[in-house]
């Protein structure tokens, strides 16, 4: 919390919750952000990432440029910071299985790299009270004006054990057993 507050320097707010469910935590943050919005919801963009992620300096700018083009939601991709908690074969297995089309589109949805226009978010019903796959659930309820693009990339933790059951850490750890 202290680190986030120092980074924000009073230009934002750190939302703390003891919900223990990622969908509830994301919903609480979205409610707080929407409560701060003084304008039209179609001009408010909710950009989501996780505490164990590093976003590039132009991450939000890229999302807002997509919004200006009429995109209501954008799903980006992730890179893994380190595979040191995994077997030596996991990095290659992950890269082989993490498919991205030549045009940059993909089928991946990560709450750690997701942007949504506020009105589309509310129309879709917002984050559900789910302990995992809350990102896929919301993505599947969004309208057609959404895009998956490799142009949005964040770096996330390669930890073997995560907080969300069946979340990214579990998916990555599954590569330890794959083809074993």
Model description:
The protein has 180 residues and is of the alpha+beta class. 36% of the residues lie in helices and 15% in strands. It has helices at 2-8, 22-36, 59-68, 90-97, 118-124, 134-141, 168-177; strands spanning 45-48, 73-80, 114-117, 146-156. Strands 1-3-2-4 form a four-stranded mixed beta sheet, with helices on both faces. The longest helix is centred in the N-terminal third of the chain and has 15 residues, at 22-36. The chain is globular and about 50 Å long. The mean pLDDT is 93.
Assign an overall shape.
globular
Strand order of the largest sheet: 1-3-2-4
How far apart the termini lie comes to 40 Å
Average pLDDT: 93
Task: Report the major sheet.
Answer: 4 strands, mixed
Per DSSP, the total helix count is: 7
The parts where pLDDT drops under 50 for at least 5 residues are none
Work out the helicity level.
25-40%
Number of distinct beta strands: 4
Using only CA atoms, what is the Rg? 16 Å
| Classification by helices and strands | alpha+beta
Q: Give the amount of beta strand, in percent.
A: 15-25%
Secondary-structure element string: HHEHEHEHHEH
